[in-house]
């Protein structure tokens, strides 16, 4: 498993690793609930204050912890071999992945990524990616896929404008296209604007790493967001990011 990473940034000592204790996973689920309900208006009122689903027990959970022991950033990763055993990836609830999965190589799925609002200066996300990158190298993953979420609290105008911008600049090849199972409706009350919009930092990071958009967005009513399926070819990471995230070149 990836080694523990440490960094000191803006007076905050951070540690990044794979969660090994149940309490760390619960803390990560609690952070997910806090971020998704407050920023997306997600319908997660289970009475427990945590976000959890049937995939959590099968995932590796990556956490960034501050000096007080609190989880300030998290993501989870589902290995493709495990997904096959349990009936598929989370994103297959939203997209038809059959064409994409016909491509040779080993897939893994990243999901439920979130960072506490006061820790979004960059260090926490960089540490999270560093630990994930080590895992990708150790497990010899070929492709990393996941749902990139865009809030729909404005009625969907921003989601469609971001989608159009990403499809224009970062569209995957035909062999990697997917089809949404719940098509995101276009806003009907006013025409879409053509001006560029600010892409959320997490999605912007994916694109800088070389990720591509695999088709049209899906409407996720529970999280009240639009999801785009994005795919990262691990072997095509730009050299500067491979060094930055300590992703060593693989040999046959």
Quick rundown:
This protein is α+β, with helices and mostly antiparallel strands and 252 residues long. It contains 7 helices and 11 strands.
Keywords summarizing the entry:
nine-stranded mixed β-sheet; alpha+beta; 7 helices; 252 residues; single chain
Count up the helices. 7
Describe the main β-sheet briefly: 9 strands, mixed
Helix content: 25-40%
Average of per-residue pLDDT values: 86
**How are helices and strands ordered from N to C?**
EEHEEHEHEHEHEHEEEH
**Cα radius of gyration in angstroms:** 18 Å
Structural class: alpha+beta
Strand percentage: 25-35%
Shape: globular
Terminal Cα separation, in Å? 20 Å
Model regions low in confidence, pLDDT < 50 over at least 5 residues: 248-252
Number of strands: 11
Describe the 3D structure:
By secondary structure, the protein is an alpha+beta fold. 29% of the residues lie in helices and 25% in strands. The protein contains 7 helices and 11 strands. The protein has helices spanning 22-40, 80-86, 98-101, 123-139, 157-169, 201-208, 239-244, and strands at residues 5-9, 12-18, 60-66, 71-79, 95-96, 107-115, 143-151, 179-180, 212-213, 218-220, 225-233. Strands 1, 2, 3, 4, 6, 7, 9, 10 and 11 form a 9-stranded mixed beta sheet that branches. A two-stranded antiparallel sheet has the order 5-8. The longest helix has 19 residues, at 22-40. The radius of gyration is 18 Å and the shape is globular. Residues 248-252 have low confidence and may be disordered.
């Amino acid at each position: 498993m990836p080694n523990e990473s440490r960094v000191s940034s803006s007076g905050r000592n951070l540690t990044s690793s794979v969660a090994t204790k149940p309490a760390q996973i619960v803390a990560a689920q609690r952070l997910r609930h806090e971020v998704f309900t407050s920023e997306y208006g997600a319908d997660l009122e289970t009475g427990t204050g945590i976000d959890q689903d049937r995939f959590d027990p099968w995932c590796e959970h990556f956490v960034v912890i501050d000096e007080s022991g609190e989880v300030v950033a998290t993501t989870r990763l589902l290995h493709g071999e495990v997904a096959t055993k349990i009936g598929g990836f989370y994103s297959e609830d939203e997209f038809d992945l059959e064409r994409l999965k016909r491509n040779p190589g080993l897939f893994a799925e990243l999901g439920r990524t979130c960072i506490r609002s006061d820790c979004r200066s960059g260090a926490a996300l960089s540490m999270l990616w560093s630990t994930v990158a080590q895992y990708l190298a150790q497990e010899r993953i070929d492709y990393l896929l996941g749902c990139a979420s865009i809030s729909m609290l404005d009625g969907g105008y921003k989601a469609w404008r971001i989608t159009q911008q990403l499809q224009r600049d970062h569209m995957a090849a035909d062999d990697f296209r997917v089809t949404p199972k719940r098509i995101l409706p276009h806003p009907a009350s006013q025409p879409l604007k053509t001006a560029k919009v600010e892409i959320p930092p997490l999605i912007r990071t994916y694109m800088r790493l070389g990720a591509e958009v695999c088709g049209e967005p899906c409407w996720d009513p529970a999280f009240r967001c639009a999801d785009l399926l994005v795919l990262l070819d691990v072997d095509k990471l730009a050299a500067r990011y491979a060094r930055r995230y300590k992703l060593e070149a693989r040999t046959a």
